[in-house]
Amino acid sequence: MNFLSKPARQLAGLLSLALMASAVAAETDYPTRDGMGVRFSDDLSFQLGMRVHGDAVIYDDDVTPLSDDQDFRRARLGGTVNWSDWRLRADYDFGVSSGWKSAYLQYRGLRRQRITLGNQVAPFSLEDLTSSNSLPLMERSVASALSPGMLFGLSYKTWGDRWSLQAGLFEDELSDLGRRRMPGKSVVGRFTVAPVKSKYATLHLGFAGEYRDIDGGEDVRLRARPGTRLTDTRLVDTRSIADVSEATTAGFELAAAWRGFRVQGEALRSDLDRDAGDLKFEGQYVLGSVLLGGGRYRYSRSSGTFRAVKPKSRWGVVELAGRIARVDLWYADIRGGEQIETTFGLNWILNEQMRVMLNYTDVDASPNRDGVDENPSLMSMRLQFAI
């Protein structure tokens, strides 16, 4: 398939910059976990980050027409400047979800504390806060339709050996990614604790909450795609909901990992206050994965998330994953539909930078946003490279 059909010029620019940075980094002997970089002094350094996710999808549609496609799910280029106790980061994506991603200034001068101003992932949901380079399946679950995702704001984070806490004040994100439309201002917070935390075993619990004051005169909209970001079609969609004054969203997380085995799940619920009667929407998912041929699931105590798998073998490691996820957007007079997705994944993780992924997803929209039951399915593949 021809992945260069749409964003060829953008990708060529990304690759050129990456090659230049790699050449400079090779001369300066400064490769880093977050990319390729140059150290100018003890207090000043620059890192170049890049991720390219080339996706292809084949649909077996049902009632709603769904078209096969191939494109760059992500074609992201970013840079990070570290100067003394400060970090400045900016990432822009040229792929199908184009727009600004992380774009913030962060103060790092306090031990185990971070203060961040700018566009960032709001501290809500284990799944959302896990890097797309590390997710065991190609897309986040349909339950993430209720989570805030990226927002612009000011946040504070601190952590201990077995816990983390992050909270902040947020407005809308810099780029409209078309997932959750809820214009306004938020208070968002997340607390995690790991009662079991060792090199080979982790037990994780997390609690998150968001209170959002909706801008006057603005409508709210929740919706979800069927299995992939390569389509703009939504089978479940609340459409515009008028006269919403505020929204409260809560999330609960539970995860456990032992060596190369992992299970995790989340439950989310959004309550919307409006003149015509309050609304309640919910979503859940349960995910399991296993590494075949060595490796373990690594846990970050500072962020309360799982990090990228680091294979022991030079041939990499194979990962099997499965997930069942649900979002329910049908309540009272809002007939947005209910969608359940069952996804199975097979990944070849060559190293921390490269993966090949294959997913099969069965989508059950019963009913969809038009009140009709349908059951499409899709097969998707990804070639991933990231530094």
Radius of gyration from CA coordinates: 21 Å
Order of helices and strands: HEEEEEEEHEEEEEEEEEEEEEEEE
Low-confidence stretches: 1-10, 17-33
State the secondary-structure class: mainly beta
- Overall body shape: globular
What proportion of the residues is helical, as a percent range? under 10%
The pLDDT mean sits at 91
Largest sheet: 16 strands, antiparallel, barrel
Question: Can you list the strand order of the major beta sheet?
Answer: 3-4-5-6-7-8-9-11-12-15-16-17-20-21-22-23
Total beta strands: 23
Distance between the termini: 24 Å
**Portion in beta strands:** over 45%
Number of helices: 2
Describe this structure in words.
This protein is mainly beta. About 5% of the residues lie in helices and about 55% in strands. The protein has 2 helices and 23 strands. The strands form 3 sheets. A 16-stranded antiparallel beta barrel has the order 3-4-5-6-7-8-9-11-12-15-16-17-20-21-22-23. Strands 10-13-14 form a 3-stranded antiparallel β-sheet, with no helix packed on it. A hairpin with a 2-residue loop joins strand 4 and strand 5. The longest helix is centred in the N-terminal third of the chain and has 21 residues. It starts with 7 loop residues before the first helix and ends with a strand.
